[in-house]
Amino acid sequence: MLTNPVFLSIQVLNALALSMNLFIIASGLTLIFGVLRIINFAHGAFFMLGAYALLTVLQWFGETEAAFWSGVLFAGVVLAALAFVTERFLLRHLYDREHLLQLVFTFALILIIEDGAKLFWGTSQHSVSYPPSLAGAVDLGIIQYPAYLLFLSAVGPVVAIVLWLVFSRSRWGRVVRAARLDREMLGALGTNVRSVYALVFVVGAMLAGMGGALAAPRVAVGPGMDATVIINSFIIVIIGGLGSLWGSFVGSLTLGFVIVFGTVFLSEWEIVLVYVMMAAVLMVRPWGLFGRPMQGRD
Fold first, then answer.
1. 146: which strand partners?
2. Residue 1: what pLDDT?
């Protein structure tokens, strides 16, 4: 099969589309951990709410072009609002507490969000159609490939470059990096560190929500859809290096190709291959491909 250019091209493109969709979601988790040093188990639940937000807009206004892209933006806004309230009234009281309390809190968020989603949207699975402008296929010469999946493959690098420019070239990015390295010193210089933390958590949740909305046409929208995503997101963050944007990008590509080609060639071992890959990376680089040995923040 590897000698068949049509088959190989399809699988490579499938892997790219999956990788870039995962990167959009995992980049938010990377951002939150890199700055706040909180392992947000609820990130997958934010992803699920983003998909449900898009589904709701489409149910209200029909599956039109405007409704789809408005739904993606609506997902980001809804998750930003939820993240702001969560950080402002709950999470910020746990920054100086032990990590176990933070883990318990984010796990409790999962239970609350999942039960709330079941009450509001039910337990059935739903499907979302591609937006009309991307519903067809693109002729790539040797194959025709769904336009929406090509869009996903392209939007991932765009998100990566935008995030890199913001955090590497802007004043706000410098402030965020300073908060990550020494929040006490940054506060002593007059910066409102709590506001920086709140904004970082909001942006991370927005990425999860919009990633969920963009993923909705290629997955079944329903309860439990967050479980696989949060596992994959943590794997990406771990193998890429905790807090590393480009590490998450490379980690997403690595995981996407392992999942797609593992499913095709070793379907019974696909889940095992993911963890074998992660173990192999950590044996060579215990802090991840682009990470650095952890140092205390306080």
1. 137
2. 60
